[in-house]
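Hi there. Long-time user, first ticket. I'm pasting a complex I've been working with (about 257 residues overall). I'd like to know whether the download I got is complete or cut off, because the file seemed smaller than I expected. Thanks.
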Amino acid sequence: MVVGTGASGSMAADGVEERKQMSALIVDDNSVIQKIHKVIMTKLGFETQVVDNGKMAVDLHTSGCSFDVILMDMEMPVMNGIEATKELRAMGVETMIVGVTACSLESEKQAFKEAGLNECFVKPLNMEEAKSLVKKLNKEDN
Amino acid sequence: GYLDDQFVQLEELQDHANPNFVEEVVALFYKDSSRLLLNIDQALEKKPLEFTKLDGYMHQFKGSSSSIGAKKVKAECTLFRDYCRAGNAEGCMRTFQQLKKEYATLRKKLEAYFQ
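Hi, the file is complete. Here it is re-exported in full:
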């Protein structure tokens, strides 16, 4: 498993390309989930940022921030995951957006996927699921 | 048991870089739970019941409970939400009392685990 293979790298003095650390944005209003997801992504080598709702995620992108992966909760105050995902896609954000939801209703999960997700998992994410995301990111990068 | 495989997942995330991870997650769960249980208690005193609001609180509580693997508490949350959707006030009240009992038992188990 190769982690940290960002799209852009720089050449070190010995001619070996340096790998950019990958970044993950965790969008969830639940502090327990925030902590679990932060630890999982950090263990996999990601630099992480955590926000409490979809609007904060959108505002970060509006201000010019970008990430390699976004873990997006579905139900949040201010702006939920469905709205935030639609907004990010409408802005042209092509980052991998992974929905994580406690919702058991298929119709609601389907609406979340149709908003523009790349993947959707039941929360919390586990290490195996997170590793599968890294594999996909590394494949896209290569 | 009171805790499912998700709790094992949390134990597996604990390491030298995060030596108190499980305890920290449980502390966050307690903090979240206290707030949500109080909100639900207060909401259950208002008549008629605001089922949408109650369902919202319980959705959050269910999320936290499942994150630490608290399967019995989570089961009561699911039942409560079913009663909310059915507009069944008595069912909500009864289930909430049971949920609080399960939560109290869970806390005792977790306290024993950390000792």
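A couple of notes from our side: DSSP finds five helices and seven strands in chain A. Residues 127-141 of chain A form the longest helix (15 residues).
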